[in-house]
Design a protein that fits this description.
Chain lengths: 309, 326
């Protein structure tokens, strides 16, 4: 997993890492839930909402379309109702309920989460590269596993407590039986899946998390803060990659004012980075003179990150 | 086409009643700086202006070199220009308190002995809660109506889109709640020995909430009041991102004010002897500018040069003014 603030190069690094591993003969899936992540743009292929797409031998990429997933849920529910009651059409009242449920703010959230759990639990790849959303939100997703777990625990307990009341209500509504057990079972199923995926996320043997940073004061400050929070959630932090480092040889050439200033800033903050992260820095990646899009540029980046591929 | 037809200044002139503007785009394109510049401009027009950050990772204090966290503070030596970083912790605590009161009331109303605390905690731990709280806070700021002009520095665009789209989503949800609430009330009246009609505060709350949502949705989709601006760099990924988002915004019926291109390397700084690295970048930039004109055409409102240093502090924001509002 690569994390960090927006615009630092998380997606590019994810793509380059996937490229490198695929070239080593590993079966790799690089995936993202962030509509801003632009895997489509980097690979120059429209993969949004299309499931795992083969980019080259061993390399698969996937961008999750949460809206579509929500729509699929709704369809699933409709189908269940139709099958169960042998109807040919969903009654209007139930349809409006289905619409409203899909509109709940948490729905998109859980759709995304569900899809990620699906991907991780399903297996089939040697490596998974999860291109995360920017800092604040990356944390949020990672913490979600533990939050969801606790949340479901609470709800499960509550449901058991409420059973008594529900039975009274059911008698009043003249329902024949309670569908309570079905709901409880569903909750327990979700809980099991979450435990499994959060287990994977925090497994130091299987999971590595890298922060992308650049030589800027704000980025460094924010990253230190974020790293502390990640530690709280037991996410295995494996190191930092410094991106957009200007090559020293440029300094001897004729360059515009803005670049000269960037060199001054870079020198100052590279020192800070060195002192702050010390031996946890895994690579310095140079600023490229072209956009990193298309396999050719990705290969170039992979070589600077990992050596010959 | 490769020139601005309606500039930022012209757009403002054409929309004299504009009151709420937003800046969105990929991370690292300068949203905060542009928002700061727009707030300064509005203040200079004699409008009491608030720049509010709804981003969970705030950067306004850093922009101004001044602490604006959790309080509205005047910035840029302008008595009319205020900046404010929303403190989510406060909002969340407040929302929790409100929910607690509502739920406690409901449990009493329904003669339930279940302890409310567990339920409240589970409701507020819901991952979407922070986002909802942030939206509530934005709505509050808008309804208080203490300023003439509002600039919102939003979180990355996906989030902003959801934040705004949420008003639509909420109305649907509340509709559903109201309905089941109505059913519960009827049930209770049936059971009740006394037939007197009880005041139902929860119902009142839901109705009030529904009204709020309809109101904010009205404001956010009003072309004369609201405009959403997209910021990009002359680079392929930020362009791709806003191309995608601009369409989503149209779908939501949120008025798109236009596109601002930030960080353009100035040609007069690049000569024949300039390092190849820089010349390559400029060549790439030309291609991307071409692309920008083709995709956004007359939606481009300003093109802003890459400054030689980071834009931070009042003097730099003042310099930005002349470029954003040509």
């Amino acid at each position: 997993m690569f994390g960090g603030k927006g615009g630092l190069g998380k997606t590019t690094f994810s793509a380059a890492t996937a490229y490198y591993l695929a070239k080593q003969g590993k079966r790799v899936l690089v995936f993202s839930v962030d509509p801003q992540a632009s895997l489509s743009d980097i690979f120059k292929r429209d993969i949004f909402g299309k499931g795992p797409t083969e980019i080259m031998p061993n390399l698969y990429a996937q961008e999750i379309d949460a809206d579509r997933r929500v729509k699929e849920y709704q369809q699933e529910i409709r189908q269940k109702i139709l099958d169960m009651y042998g109807m040919d059409k969903i009654p209007e009242e139930i349809e409006s309920y289905i619409q409203a449920a899909a509109a709940e703010p948490a729905m998109e959230e859980s759709a995304i989460f569900d899809e990620v759990v699906d991907i991780v639990v399903k297996g089939g790849y040697d490596y998974y590269i999860y291109d995360l959303v920017p800092l604040g939100h990356a944390l949020y997703y990672l913490s979600m596993a533990s939050v969801y777990d606790e949340w479901i625990d609470k709800i499960t307990n509550l449901r058991q407590q409420m059973r008594e009341y529900d039975q009274v209500a059911a008698v009043m509504r003249r329902d024949k039986e309670l569908d309570e057990d079905a709901i409880l079972n569903e909750l327990l199923y979700i809980k099991e899946r979450i435990n499994k995926s959060s287990g994977i996320l925090t497994d130091k043997e299987k999971t590595a998390f890298f922060f992308v940073i650049t030589a800027e004061q704000m980025i460094i400050t924010d990253t230190v803060k974020a790293a502390e929070l990640f530690a709280k959630f037991d996410v295995p932090l494996s190191g930092y990659v410094v991106n957009r480092v200007l090559s020293e040889t440029l300094k001897q050439q004729e360059i515009p004012e803005y670049l000269k200033n960037r060199f001054v800033m870079q020198e100052k903050y590279l020192k800070v980075i060195d002192e702050t992260f010390k031996n946890q820095i895994l690579a310095y990646v140079p600023e490229m003179d072209r956009d990193v899009t298309g396999l050719e540029m990705i290969e170039k980046l992979a070589i600077t990150m990992f050596g010959n591929v | 086409m490769n020139q601005i037809t309606t500039s930022m200044t012209q757009y403002m002139k054409d929309h004299p009643g504009l009151k709420y503007i937003f800046f969105g785009g990929k991370g690292g394109v300068g949203k905060t700086v542009l928002a700061g510049t727009a707030a300064l401009w509005a203040a200079k027009q004699g409008k009491k202006t608030l720049l509010a950050s709804t981003n969970p990772v705030h950067s306004l204090s850093n922009l101004y070199g001044q602490d604006v966290f959790g309080k509205a503070v005047t910035v840029c030596d302008e008595s009319l220009c205020y900046a404010f970083e929303i403190d989510t912790k406060d909002t969340i605590e407040r929302s929790k308190r409100e929910i607690r009161e509502k739920i406690n009331w409901f449990l009493k109303f329904a003669d339930l002995t279940t302890k409310a605390d567990d339920f409240i905690e589970s409701a507020t731990m819901n991952p979407a809660f922070e986002e909802s709280a942030m939206f509530e806070n934005m709505t509050d700021i808008m309804f208080k109506n203490e300023y003439d002009f509002y600039v919102f520095d939003t979180a990355p665009t996906a989030n902003a889109r959801r934040l705004l789209g949420m008003s639509k989503v909420y109305s649907l949800w509340v509709e559903k709640m109201l309905k089941s609430r109505d059913e519960a009330k009827t049930l209770r009246e049936l059971l009740s020995f006394s037939k007197k009609n009880e005041e139902d505060p929860l119902m009142n709350y839901l109705l009030g909430f529904k009204g709020r949502m309809a109101k904010v949705q009205g404001l956010l989709t009003d072309n004369n009041l609201t405009a959403f601006f997209f910021a990009t760099l002359p680079e392929s990924l930020p362009i791709a991102v806003i191309t995608r988002f601009i369409n989503w915004f149209y779908e939501f019926g949120i008025p798109v004010g236009g596109v601002v291109v930030n960080g353009i390397i100035q040609k007069d700084q690049v000569g024949e002897n300039t390092a190849e690295f820089v010349r390559n970048r400029v060549k790439m930039q030309d291609d991307h500018m071409q692309e920008i004109w083709e995709i956004f055409g007359d939606k481009v409102r300003a093109t802003i040069p890459l400054f030689e240093t980071e834009v931070k502090g009042t003097p730099m924001l003042k310099r930005m003014l002349d470029h954003l509002f040509v």
